[in-house]
Amino acid sequence: MDKFLVNAANQNHPLRILSDFLNNEDSVETAKRYNESRFVGYVLDIGYDEITIITCDPFKINVGGIPRNSLLIMVPDSFEQNGTSIPPHFTLLRVLDSAPTPLTKEVQQTYFELQKKSMPELDIFTQSELQWGALKTQVLGMFYPHPREADTVEFSGDLNNYVSAHKYKIFSPDEPLLDLVSNATVPKENRFPVGKLRLTECRLPLPNKKIPNVDIFLSTNDFKGCRTAMFGKTRLGKSNVVKLIAQSLLETTMTSRNVGQLIFDINGEYANDNPQDDNLSIRGAYPDRCTVYALAPKPNTPSHPLKLNFFHTPYSSKQVMNTLIRQSGRSGSDYVDAFISVDIPDFTEVNAIPQNRMSDKKRAVRKIQIYFALLHKCKFDCDESVVRTSIPSAESVSGFNPAFAAALRTAAYGFSSLQVPNAPNSLATLQTELEVIHRFKKSNPNDPTLRSTGSGNPIFDQEDNALLEMLEPNPGRSGFGILLRYRTYHDQRAGDYTTNILQLLDQGQTVILDLGNADEILMAYFARQLSEAVFHHQTDKFTNNNLGNHYVQLYFEEAHNLFGYNDNSDDTRIYRRFAKEGAKYHIGMVYSTQSPSTVNSDLLAQTENFFIAHLASQDDTNKLAKVNIAYDSIKNDILQAKTAGYMRMLTRSHRFVVSMQAKKFTPPKSQ
């Protein structure tokens, strides 16, 4: 009756698979169909961390072989103790290596003697003795019924108890059991198939034995607000797995739209299809869910310009210019550093200056005018009619007219032997007037016309002088020539891309920044600038209690270029903040690089999910094992296996490393 009640309670339990498996093994043994048996052997030595098992050649052949890193299960000889049935459970083992037996030396002596005698035909008794051996296995944990939740499996990374070795049996799990151990701990919610179970790189089957065909699933809940690492040598499938993760989030948020994704696409492979390599992009697969911003638009890829209108947002564009100058190594000169220190006010800031501070407002408007004249001299194109009306007014100082006093204009043009023209009404005439006055000022610094008739203060302050020195440099200085190369970052049609991208992310869109063919300076700038914008945007939502269930996921390739191992500079501070604070603000990140030893240690230590392809350096595998002990036992496998797409996956839901062959990214059938 007790056994009947237990069976009835477990009728729909996932561990019913184990009961059916063991019942089938009993039937196979009774019918003496030994070639169908999954029995592997017995326990020779048992401990909490490692278990040594004894097996023989026929057992290995029956189960299709027992390669290193394959999975075995250990079950009690009986689930009845003292007349009481105990719940079905099993211990999961990973095969590590061969192990010596008490007869190892005698076996070696026998082989030695046989070799000396030219290996005659072995008698049946000697064959029987020599076919036995031992394997060392690692205890991964136990699967058992959840104590409180019905029809649910719980996994523990340790053993609650063990008894004498002879009271256990070892089996090689069949496909249903392999599916259970690989996917039972993955939440049913937001599941997505990522590949097939692949226990070894070698796919040569034994005669009449098939390789297991088991799907591997992940839950996209494991990636929201978490850090995910892709490590492995180039061309081994890291980008393909990144596409699968992005696809999984697109698929599982089709209705909720509660995850926005931002992909920094340094090679253009997520934004643009590549028919020659049969390589479909994320945008190509999900055109309605993806928006592309491109530095250099491709003919067949609809995109928005990933550029600034330097005339539209003077403060932001000047900050971009400052960053690019520093990163190019052109800073260090007094006049260049003085230019970098200048802040150009935005239009809204100028308009906010009250009327009782009209002199301050005039100075602010003139600063914008000098900056725009400098941009014009560097051939930053614009629609002058639009720019003219966008510049705030401060009494007579408006548009392109700085409204300098008549005495100053007369003295300056007279110094250059030029007739005084009408007030400037274009960027060209504004540039000319500023150059003429600056030349006059340098030669006549104490001329009274260079001071305000009201306050007596200089008309040009230090920041104005820094701008004018870049516009009309002293002989021997590059001046405005330094800025010519930055025209590629300007587009007069561009809007405020940062604000637009943040809005798209809030709508659950996947935004792809096509940075193909961009130099490292530009890639680093956009990555940092947008990362900071996302962080501050999410922080604002957090402080205003508006985060809700919305997440932002960022993707970085060649991560060592953005946040290297020993890089603790201010430029990489945002990525360290992602590592430490990203979860709180619902910011997740996926980063990929060839080597774990090149990534910032703060980020590496906080990473929850790992996808590991082939690594060629023992330093890298040792670093990986230090970061996550789960990889310690498979270091040799990572060093030796080089098949593309062969990954060792560990997520928040997977309590041990799962070896799998990642599927190739393909669009959904409905596309």
UniProtKB/TrEMBL annotation:
The lineage of its organism: Bacteria, Pseudomonadati, Bacteroidota, Flavobacteriia, Flavobacteriales. Residues 213-312 form the Helicase HerA central domain. It comes from Flagellimonas taeanensis. InterPro entries: HerA-like, HerA_central, P-loop_NTPase. Transmembrane segments: none annotated. This is Helicase HerA central domain-containing protein. It comes from the Bacteria.
